[in-house]
Design a protein that fits this description.
Blueprint: E1 2-3, E2 6-7, H1 10-31, H2 42-67, E3 70-71, H3 76-91, H4 97-105, H5 117-122, H6 150-163, E4 178-179, E5 187-189, E6 194-201, E7 204-211
Antiparallel strand pairs: 1-2, 3-4, 5-6, 6-7
């Protein structure tokens, strides 16, 4: 699959997943401090916007990695968010958006430690469509779901990496893709040797997390 500047490479997909994870880190930092999270309507809006995150920054690039026969190592926080959303899609007859929000909010992340790279990444200004900064209980969510092409996302990722602080060791983080055949086209590997099997049909995402 290509965009206007040429083929999307394994390294570029890796950078996109790093960027998607960085957005989640920034979201966690704000949501944990927000007083609006307990208001009626917040969890439903949060779930809608998390689906937009997955559909914009994650699923298209996981699909590209499948087509390119690359095995993608997904950052831990992003992996856990995908697993939560998939598990509820599979199990819940009617989605419990409040439970999804609470489980995502409870995920372990080092965004509060001033010594960590994740804290610095989460503190970066000017994330595109930083919806987590708004009071979701009173926002019109339909106005917060811009459509972005692969080219648009690649430009956002390029700008993000250009703005990273020099000491952030992106090359040491376990977010890199490994070239080569994959066992099954639906299996996405995480750095801790767990995996999540993702089935994408239209705008729906299904899957099962398992240990290898």
């Amino acid at each position: 699959m290509a965009y206007s500047d040429g083929q999307v490479t394994a390294g570029e997909i890796s950078c996109v997943l790093f960027y998607a994870n960085s957005r989640l880190l920034a979201m966690r930092l704000y949501v944990d401090k927000s007083f609006a999270t307990s208001l009626p309507g917040y969890a439903e809006a949060f779930h809608t916007l998390m689906k937009w995150e997955m559909e914009t920054f994650v699923m298209p690039f996981i699909n590209i990695s499948f087509l390119s026969r690359c095995s993608a190592a997904i950052p831990t926080l992003l992996h856990d968010v995908i697993a939560i959303m998939i598990a509820h899609t599979l199990v819940d007859r009617q989605l419990d958006v409040t439970e999804i929000f609470m489980e995502i909010k409870a995920l372990d992340a080092s965004v509060h430690c001033h010594q960590s790279d994740e804290y610095d990444i989460a503190q970066m200004p000017d994330y595109f469509n930083a919806w987590w900064k708004d009071n979701l209980a009173s926002c019109k969510v339909s106005d917060m779901l811009p459509r972005s092409s692969v080219q648009d996302v690649m430009q956002l990722v390029e700008d993000h990496f250009a703005e990273l602080l020099d000491h952030v060791e992106t090359g040491l983080l376990p977010y890199m893709l490994k070239l080569g055949p994959i066992c099954t086209p639906e299996t996405v590997m995480n750095s801790d040797s767990s995996s999540v099997t993702i089935l994408i049909k239209g705008d729906q995402m299904y899957g099962i997390e398992r240990e290898l």
